[in-house]
Amino acid sequence: MPEQSERKPVNVVLSNSGVLSADTAVKTSAGHVYWMTVSDTAALAIELNDSANNSGTDRWALNLPAAGYAHFIFDPPIQFATGIYLDVSTATCKVTIGYI
Question: What is the H or E stretch that residue 91 is in?
Fold first, then answer.
């Protein structure tokens, strides 16, 4: 039986966007979104776009009702080739994204 190569641990640091309430370039290079928490007092349309400036393809979208709250864990994570851009429809929302 051939000898197996030793696997080395990979040190990946998951970043946190902090609380966002406006359209924002979360990351301006390729990445992955692992989780997201969303809340709003008003009805909210939210999209995650594969770009650094909202010019790319939407990779995920949600319409949240007024006074809504949701937490999402993406397994597998959502891949973004260009960047991670958050597009929201209100300024009253609170969005936090876990990404690398």
Answer: none
The model's pLDDT over 21-51, given as tens digits with 9 standing for 90+, comes to 999 999 999 999 999 999 999 999 999 999 9
C-beta separation of 26 from 100 below 8 A? no
Alpha carbon 31 to its chain's center: 9
pTM, rounded to two decimals: 0.86
Instruction: Please count the structural domains in the chain.
Output: 1
Residue ranges making up the domain that contains 22: 15-99
CATH number of the domain that residue 70 is part of:
2.60.120
3-state secondary structure of 75: strand
